[in-house]
Design goal:
Structural class: alpha/beta
Order of helices and strands: EHEHEHEHEEHEEEHEEHEHH
Radius of gyration: 18 Å
Shape: globular
CATH architecture of the domain at 2-157 and 184-212 and 254-269: 3-Layer(aba) Sandwich
CATH superfamily of the domain at 2-157 and 184-212 and 254-269: NAD(P)-binding Rossmann-like Domain
Bound molecules: NADPH dihydro-nicotinamide-adenine-dinucleotide phosphate, dtdp-4-keto-L-rhamnose, magnesium ion
Strand order of the largest sheet: 2-1-3-4-5-10
CATH topology of the domain at 2-157 and 184-212 and 254-269: Rossmann fold
Distance between the termini: 38 Å
Strand content: 15-25%
CATH class of the domain at 2-157 and 184-212 and 254-269: Alpha Beta
Length: 289
């Protein structure tokens, strides 16, 4: 089986390239220089001409705060390009796999959000991701939209790397403790996408939730990171109000993941185990320039 993937160096794209071989899946991964999602019709043309059996979109505009000032660009990359790619995939009868986010929800309540719950994004990133979901669904072909949260890995930008960087320079970090969610290893997202791709149209598509367990606050996550990394840094719990950001984040980022289990027998990954692996991998990397 061959997959055409948009995205090359991102967290999920990197893990997917690594794992595909083990599953006998050939992946043609497109860098930004080969497929720029700010040009939706060019991306659709690539899908129209592909010899792949499945399309995976692992590229996105993920700078949550910056998106508040770059709404048009975020809309092109997160909404219009996936919509155009999914339309072309539908015309070719190719399954289209897409990734979305907990930030489509407004964070109200304190129980995990189901795939039936009504999204209501708080910021531009979440709005553009939700519009991308809508456009992918309305394209009318077989699709799977995997909503995940708080992605981490040894590659790209993520909270683990942010905390390690800050911890190197300080002995105390103030981290929000009232936003609760599920840190999710990029490696497990990649594995899940490969499983979905391999089942293809035999299984039900639609929206699925997938996040790591157990639930944690960002402060809990930061504490686990410094503890596992053996750093002597104190994590101080603060309320969201004490950490103002251009884009508001949801307080309740919990995702209810049973639909993925019922459809694909995929369980929520244990983020604490993966954190150990990611920290070990980071240690082996050469320091970034
Ligand atoms: N990161 C997270 O915490 C979460 C992510 N998600 C979703 O998961 C998916 C994967 O995210 P993740 O792997 O973390 O993302 P990253 O931010 O690690 O990577 C994003 C990728 O998209 C590429 N990209 C950005 N703009 C363009 C463009 N104009 N044209 C082509 N490629 C572009 C980047 O390329 P380049 O390297 O050239 O910049 C990069 O490879 C996304 O859909 C995201 O919304 C969902 C929940 C949480
Ligand atoms: C660096 C830092 C962050 N924080 C808070 C801010 C925020 O509420 C939380 C996480 O910060 P970040 O900005 O790293 O996370 P953020 O970029 O909002 O992460 C999100 O990215 C997008 C792409 C998603 O889809 C989401 O699932 C989620 O992973 O931690 C602190 O409280 N103290 C700090 O020193
Ligand atoms: Mg970020």
């Amino acid at each position: 089986m061959k997959a055409l993937m948009f995205g090359y160096d991102g967290q999920v794209a990197t893990e997917l390239r690594r794992q595909a071989k083990l599953h006998g899946v050939e992946v043609e991964a497109l860098k930004r220089s080969q497929a720029d999602l700010s040009d939706p019709s060019a991306c659709a043309a690539i899908v129209r001409n592909t010899d792949a059996d499945v399309i995976i979109n692992a590229a996105a505009y993920t700078a949550v705060d910056k998106a508040e000032k770059e709404q048009r660009l975020a809309q092109l990359i997160n909404s219009d390009a996936p919509g155009a790619m999914a339309s072309a995939a539908a015309d070719r009868d190719l399954p289209f796999l897409h990734i979305s986010t907990d930030y489509v929800f407004d964070g109200s309540g304190d129980v995990p959000r189901t795939t039936e719950d009504q999204p209501n994004p708080l910021g531009v990133y979440g709005q553009t991701k939700l519009d991308g979901e809508r456009q992918v669904a309305e394209a009318g072909g077989w699709h799977a939209i995997l909503r995940t949260s708080w992605v981490f890995s040894a590659h790209g930008n993520n909270f683990v790397k942010t905390i390690l960087r800050l911890a190197a320079a300080r002995d105390q970090l103030a981290i929000v403790a009232d936003q609760i969610g599920g840190p999710t290893p990029a490696a497990d997202i990649a594995g899940t996408l490969i499983t979905i791709a391999m089942r293809g149209k035999q299984a039900d598509g639609g929206v699925f939730h997938y996040s790591g367990a157990p639930e944690a606050s960002w402060a809990d996550f930061a504490r686990a990171i410094v503890l596992q990394a053996g750093l002597d840094v104190q994590i101080v719990d603060i309320p969201t109000d004490n950490y103002p950001t251009p884009a508001p984040r949801p307080l309740n980022s919990r995702l209810e993941c049973s639909r993925l289990k019922d459809t694909y027998e995929i369980l929520q990954p244990d983020w604490k185990t993966s954190l150990i692996n990611v920290l070990a991998e980071l240690k082996t990397q050469a320091p970034e320039p």
